[in-house]
Amino acid sequence: MFEQQLVNGLVLGSIYALGALGFTLIYGVARVVNFAYGELLMLGSFITLTVMTQLNIGFFIALPVSMVAIALTSVLVYVLTVRPVMRGTHLQALLVTTGVLYVLREVAIYFWGTAPRQMDMGLDGALEWGEIIVTHQRLLAIATMIVLVVALYAILYRLRIGKALRAVAQNRAGAEAIGLSVDRMIGFAFAVSGAMACAAGALIGGLYAVDPTMGSAPLLKSFVIVIFGGLGSVPGAIVGGLLIGLIETFTGSYVSFAFKDVFTFLIMIAVLLLRPAGLMGGRTA
Questions:
Q1: Cβ burial, residue 78 (10 Å; 0-12/13-18/19+)
Q2: How far is it, in rounded angstroms, from Cα 258 to Cα 252?
Q3: How far apart are CA 155 and CA 149, in angstroms?
Q4: How far apart, in whole angstroms, are the C-alpha atoms of residue 5 and residue 178?
Q5: Dihedral sign for Cα atoms in the order 60, 102, 230, 87
Q6: Residue of 275, 78, 88, 110 lying closest to 192 (CA atoms)
Q7: Mean of the pLDDT values across residues 258-280?
Q8: Residue 29 and residue 189: Cα distance in Å, rounded?
Q9: Is 130 left (phi over 0), alpha (psi -120 to 50) or beta?
Q10: pTM of the model
Q11: Residues 36, 101 contacting (CB under 8 angstroms)
Q12: pLDDT at position 282, please?
């Protein structure tokens, strides 16, 4: 029982971490809380499903196509709505992205309706190890998180554009002084964030269901996770996502499913009171 819940918690935490990565990346580079992030996740799920059904292709081919589409959409959101208020207050950016949230949700309802839909990931069967049973779909969630985390690490620490991205996150004025285009770097961060959101949304849609309101819960959880792990910290988002997934799973199994979110927010409150910078606060990108 314990081992099974441990695996379930790691699966849930992998999806949470994947979602939180894009959210914290934008904050780390642009210092903007993107409340439209959850709707990009939702659109990623719908577009993946649409590409699969309309082109009659599998999940593994449709997902990269959808990630590119949502990356471009995320950049468009930045250029049209976020960039014009970047020089203003944090409240302006928050209000603008909240407005984008509702616009994107209504667009999804207009094109796809409100009824939940099922996404066939094309993976049947399960892996059995003693009393532990893990479906291939859940294994895919963990594998996808690992692959994208490695890819993000390679971008941030092995490529020149990643070094430029970290320079902007650490000292924007200094980055501008040495000739880096801060606007391009922030746009790139939005693109990577959108791709991460799409991957998380597609996994959630495949494991559960696809509907226009599915972005609300991941957005809230991503917000909690980046506070828990440290605003702007990529390692913090990974650790925070996995821990929150484990906490929710064990709370739901051994205490009450109805209280799993209560424990999550109690932990967030405790972190804010005892360690406001988060578990890994101060580490950006």
A1: buried
A2: 7
A3: 10
A4: 50
A5: positive
A6: 78
A7: 80
A8: 7
A9: left
A10: 0.92
A11: yes
A12: 54
Pick left, alpha or beta for residue 284 (phi over 0 → left; psi -120 to 50 → alpha; otherwise beta). beta
- β-strands 126-129, 132-135: how paired? antiparallel
Residue 241: what residue type?
G
User: Do 118 and 64 contact (CB within 8 A), yes or no?
Assistant: no
CB 144 within 8 A of CB 18: yes
| Mutual angle of helices 182-207 and 37-55, in 10-degree steps | 60
Tally the residues of the chain.
Answer: 285
User: What pLDDT, in 10s, does the model give residues 211-265?
Assistant: 999 999 888 888 888 888 887 788 888 988 998 999 889 888 888 777 777 888 8
Q: What does the block give as tokens for 134? A: 């893990």
Joined together, the tokens standing for residue 194 give 């959108």
Which residue shows structure tokens 């990577």? Answer: 192
Token pair for 123: 């993976």
Q: What is the 3-state secondary structure (H, E, C) of the chain?
A: CHHHHHHHHHHHHHHHHHHHHHHHHHHHHHCCCCCCHHHHHHHHHHHHHHHHHHHCCCHHHHHHHHHHHHHHHHHHHHHHHHHHHCCCCHHHHHHHHHHHHHHHHHHHHHHHCCCCECCCCCCCCEEEECCEEEEHHHHHHHHHHHHHHHHHHHHHHHCHHHHHHHHHHHCHHHHHHCCCCHHHHHHHHHHHHHHHHHHHHHHHHHHCCECCCCCHHHHHHHHHHHHHHCCCCHHHHHHHHHHHHHHHHHHHHHCCHHHHHHHHHHHHHHHHHHCCCCCCCCCCC
Tokens of 20: 């939180």
